[in-house]
Amino acid sequence: xxFVHIYIQELNSLVNGTTYNISKIxxxxxxxxxxxxxxxxxxxxRFMHFIDxxxxxxxxxxxxxxxxxxxxxxxxxxxxxxxLHKHENYFKQEMAIYKGIKNQSEKVKEWLAKNEHxxxxxxxxxxxxxxxxISIDRNDFRYTIEFTNIFNNLYWVLLEExxxxxxx
Length: 168
Known about the structure:
By secondary structure, this protein is mainly alpha-helical.
């Protein structure tokens, strides 16, 4: 258990005004990855029980009850945020492509189809809000935000139009 409160204090010291930037989050995650893995393994053993001659893993409970659990939850949340950031350069490229074709409806449909997996699935409900009040610098996600806004505005309207045509 030991030092998790120090790790969380260290994270808190990385805030720039009221927001965290992605590079500092990535640094913190990398620095504490070994400790995260150790604590995760240790904590998961708490949920293992020998019942009827078998080891059974009972589900985690929702409430955070220990500093270790808080550390794990924060680490997981930040890790999810950095995973979402991995497409930022791709979205920058796609926004440049979109700006060149935005007045050509067939090309826009092709662009939507090409990006359907990310736009309609992985980034469908994209949000940087989290349970810990960790505010992420929106500039680090500039193109992700721009992409999801444009994709959602175009894709869902187009899908609705196609569905209406099929009904008529």
